[in-house]
Amino acid sequence: MNVEEFLNPETMAVLAERAIAAGTNLVLAILILIIGFIVAGMVKGGVRKAVERSSRMDATLAGFFSSIAYYAVIAVVGIAVLARFGVQTASLVAALGAITLAIGFALQGTLSNIAAGVMIIAFRPYSIGDWVEVAGVSGTVKDVNLFTTVLATGDNKKIIIPNGQAWGDIITNYSANPTRRVDFTFSIDYSDDIDKAMDVIKSTLGADARIHKDPEIFTAVAAHGSSSVDIVTRVWVDTGDYWGVHFDAMKSVKEAFDKNGISIPYPHQVNVEKKD
């Protein structure tokens, strides 16, 4: 194209039109970016506040959900900006979807742990400090994050459980309720007075201030064993007193049986001498 053709009014009009269109698209793209970042920030803050106000949501989820909302808005803004410059966003969205799917397959174990972590934090089947049994392991909950649950066993071993296993298995929370029932089985000899033994058990356990008066102490004959009469006893205590009451009761009832002449049977061995 020579100078005369370039300076042709029609050519100049076309170039001017294209320049105006490009400038308009550039200005609109900048405006979209500015407004998009503002909206993304507002959405992020709104989601964070909503999660923090919810009594069923953990603080960990506030940052997680707000970040997802923020980047989701930014992704939409990016696609809108590219569309202003004539980029075929349909193919771009398809490509992003394929990439996301590939990443999802590659990280499916990690993503499942994150999803389970979100469910655990949201629904709170256990909290920090609870004594639980998770994925077949018992211990005190020390930490719950998006990936793992950390327990400390009774002998202070650190157990790290992937949240996918924790959420997908049976969860037993021993600390969830304010009270628990302590069950005992005390065995007495067949020659002993059953009613007397029951009275001794009730009076001994009733002297412990940690044991609730309501529901009252329950005793009943549970079984006629091969060498003993087994008396089942049930008491209610505060959850934090469970093991203290259990261990103290085993000692105090044995001492009370001794003072009241009630025997606790134990296996005996009889040697029979064979004669030639």
SSE map:
Elements: H1 3-6, H2 9-53, H3 59-84, H4 89-106, H5 108-123, E1 131-134, E2 137-144, E3 148-152, E4 158-162, H6 163-168, E5 171-173, E6 179-188, H7 194-206, E7 218-224, E8 229-238, H8 242-259
Antiparallel strand pairs: 1-2, 1-5, 2-3, 3-4, 6-8, 7-8
Helix pairs in contact: 2-3, 7-8
Count of runs of 4 or more consecutive helical residues? 8
Quaternary organization: single chain
Rounded Rg? 36 Å
**Separation of the first and last Cα atoms:** 132 Å
Give a written overview of the molecule:
With 276 residues, the chain is of the alpha+beta class. The chain contains 8 helices and 8 strands; from the N terminus they run αααααββββαββαββα. The chain has helices at 3-6, 9-53, 59-84, 89-106, 108-123, 163-168, 194-206, 242-259, and strands spanning 131-134, 137-144, 148-152, 158-162, 171-173, 179-188, 218-224, 229-238. The model has no long low-confidence stretch (mean pLDDT 83).
